[in-house]
Inverse folding.
């Protein structure tokens, strides 16, 4: 029996009763589909974190204190921890912004010029504030696109050069740039001002709300974050209100949550694959019984035991692979729906958090971009392999049963 | 498949009908007849027994059958129901093994053959024609006829050509070849089945009641086909319980209670 004969027989058998074929493979479709859906979404999440944080951000340590960080504390941190290349403080102030027509609440981030760069923030138009602005505590502001929309009606409005009023004193500020933010990004509803401007004109305080440390490449930031926290706690006498996170740690935590989640999905999928496999076996046994005469005929025409085994094994593997193919397609489609749901939930959570004006210092990692599902070639390969394996395992018994049939008896079978 | 079987000479192609049934026997033909006699018979069985073990006890279906069939012979086996005709046929067709006794197929004793050896023998040397045709439904005539080639290592490129030639030799119109086997008449079905039996150019054609499911007229047509095959030099063993059918054969064997009673020649 040549390979092409096997393909022909399998094709013929699978297309002979399409409805039956489709019903039989349902379990496999669901099993493979759910695994593909989950791995695509998880892959998308991981991609998103990597994109969002950038590679350098794995070196980032996020520090915040509920009663604020003093400039002197920052200097001491720098001296005590040479592992940090830089530590940048920032102020977060909830303020009102208004034009002649509209008014909105927003977060103003006051930070030195290098901060935006370190946070991987890009502009869609205009420029960031610079050292001159910093020296002069200039009344300049860079807006997130969400605020542009709230104040000017459209995210794409040309606002560079326009004037608006910020803060309790309603001072006039000039818009010098717009952040290229996506709707779920944190900076979408933030505005950036020079640190000095924030201190003098918006918060009225010298203290930082949070600081971002950049560790030298190769430094274990998880351990560095622990030491940093210990240092700050010792100075304060206790660790109340002190939060120090390394991005790496958060990433690893997120990864851990995701992998336990995927373990659960894989367990569920395995059950449905086993059930699917039993369905395949049942179908193949029925098939073998129904085609007893055909088997008898083939044997009398010279089919060897191996030929019969191969024919029915190919059929059950073919069934499983068709199931796998449908599963991969449906899984991928489902992953887009899932991703859309997760994105929706996340942006809702973020909006809620921002509406309550929570200090977001320690939630920087909260996703600020969309999940785009990715289908990895490896997961497709694994899915195909698993399907073939199910076909082999659950097809063997029916195939052997067919091969063992006595040609004389089976030719007489009615 | 053992080498000894593989190296046996294959017979002439299906179509090459050698008209040798001339009324006067020429000397050349006599020489050929003598050569045939020296050649090993296609079938040579000796003292064959077949005992079926059932719950109710053992049934002696064959009780010492001996028989020789030479190349080019057309033999009919007759006998009442339950006399052991099909049992004998299954053994001759290498579908079954005797409980005891010897079976030389083209000179080779096959009692030591494994199931797969026997399958190879069936694939390459034996053509079966069944009472109930046994064509694959929803499958074209061409595919049906090609089926044995799947199991005899025939190159893909030759299969359709050979199937067409076999169908053509059965006098089936070409426009039918791509029809499904369940879309043709019973007589046509049986001729497709004969084409299938011939496709591998077998050394032996076995037919168990080939006209049993056909009316008299169509049965006659099928029998005429067998007569043609005989004239083309084919070796045929046919089972029937109709004397009209057996009348076509060179030789009729009577079997009763698992024993061959008498063998008569049947010169028309
Ligand atoms: N598989 C079997 N198991 C048990 N007994 C069998 C089996 N096959 C045949 N027999 C018995 O062997 C005897 C011969 O049967 P066989 O089928 O060879 O008869 P037959 O001559 O072909 O009859 P028919 O003309 O009805 O086809 C019968 O008594 C039958 O009951
Ligand atoms: Mg019978």
């Amino acid at each position: 029996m040549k390979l092409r004969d096997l393909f022909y027989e399998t094709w013929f058998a699978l297309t002979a009763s399409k409805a039956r074929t489709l019903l039989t493979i349902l379990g496999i479709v669901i099993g493979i589909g759910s695994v593909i859906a989950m791995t695509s979404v998880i892959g998308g999440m991981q991609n998103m974190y990597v994109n969002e944080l950038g590679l350098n951000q794995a070196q980032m340590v996020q520090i915040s204190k509920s009663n604020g960080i003093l400039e002197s504390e920052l200097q001491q941190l720098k001296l005590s921890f040479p592992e940090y290349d830089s530590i940048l403080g920032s102020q977060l102030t909830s303020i009102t912004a208004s034009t002649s027509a509209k008014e909105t609440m927003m977060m103003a981030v006051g930070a030195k010029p290098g901060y935006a760069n370190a946070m991987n923030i890009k502009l869609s138009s205009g420029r960031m504030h610079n050292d001159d602005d910093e020296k002069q505590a200039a009344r300049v502001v860079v807006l997130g696109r969400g605020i542009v929309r709230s104040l000017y009606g459209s995210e794409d409005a040309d606002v560079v050069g326009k004037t608006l009023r910020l803060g309790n004193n309603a001072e006039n500020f000039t818009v010098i740039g717009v952040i290229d933010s996506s709707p779920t990004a944190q900076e979408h509803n933030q505005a950036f001002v020079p640190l000095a401007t924030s201190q003098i004109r918006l918060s009225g305080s010298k203290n930082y709300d949070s600081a971002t440390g950049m560790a030298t490449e190769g430094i274990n930031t998880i351990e560095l974050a622990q030491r940093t926290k210990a240092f700050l706690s010792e100075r304060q006498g206790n660790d109340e209100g002190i939060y120090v996170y390394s991005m790496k740690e958060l990433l690893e935590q997120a990864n851990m949550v995701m992998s336990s989640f995927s373990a659960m999905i894989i367990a569920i999928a395995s059950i449905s694959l086993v059930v699917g496999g039993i369905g395949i076996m049942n179908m193949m046994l029925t098939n073998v019984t129904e085609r007893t005469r055909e088997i008898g005929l083939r044997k009398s025409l010279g089919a060897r035991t191996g030929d019969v085994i191969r024919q029915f094994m190919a059929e059950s593997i073919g069934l499983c692979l068709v199931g796998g193919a449908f599963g991969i397609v449906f899984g991928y489609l489902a992953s887009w729906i899932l991703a859309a749901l997760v994105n929706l939930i996340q942006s809702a959570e973020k909006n809620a958090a921002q509406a309550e004006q929570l200090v977001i210092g320690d939630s920087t990692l909260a996703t600020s971009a969309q999940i785009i599902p990715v289908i990895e070639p490896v997961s497709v390969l694994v899915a195909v392999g698993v399907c073939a394996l199910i076909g082999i395992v659950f097809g063997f018994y029916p195939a052997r049963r067919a091969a063992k049939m006595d040609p004389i008896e089976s030719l007489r079978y009615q | 498949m053992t080498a000894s079987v593989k190296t046996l000479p294959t017979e002439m192609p299906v179509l090459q009908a050698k008209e040798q049934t001339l009324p006067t026997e020429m000397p050349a033909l006599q020489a050929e007849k003598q050569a045939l006699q020296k050649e090993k018979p296609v079938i040579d069985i000796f003292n064959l027994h077949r005992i079926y073990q059932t719950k109710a006890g053992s049934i002696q279906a064959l009780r010492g059958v001996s028989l020789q069939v030479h190349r080019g012979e057309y033999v009919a086996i007759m006998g009442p129901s339950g006399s052991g005709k099909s049992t004998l046929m299954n053994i001759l067709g290498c579908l079954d093994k005797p409980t005891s006794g010897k079976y030389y197929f083209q000179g080779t004793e096959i009692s030591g053959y494994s199931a797969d050896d026997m399958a190879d023998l069936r694939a390459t040397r034996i053509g079966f024609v069944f009472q109930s045709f046994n064509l694959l439904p929803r499958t074209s005539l061409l595919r049906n006829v090609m089926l044995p080639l799947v199991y005899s290592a025939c190159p893909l490129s030759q299969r359709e050509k050979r199937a067409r030639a076999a169908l053509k030799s059965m006098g089936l119109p070409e426009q039918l070849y791509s029809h499904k086997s369940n879309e043709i008449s019973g007589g046509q079905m049986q001729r497709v089945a004969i084409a299938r039996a011939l496709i591998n150019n077998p050394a032996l054609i076995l037919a168990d009641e080939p006209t049993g499911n056909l009316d008299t007229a169509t049965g006659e047509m099928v029998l005429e086909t067998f007569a043609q095959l005989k004239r083309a030099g084919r070796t045929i063993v046919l089972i029937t319980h109709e004397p009209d059918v057996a009348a076509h054969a060179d030789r009729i064997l009577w079997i009763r209670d698992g024993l061959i009673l008498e063998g008569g020649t049947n010169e028309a």
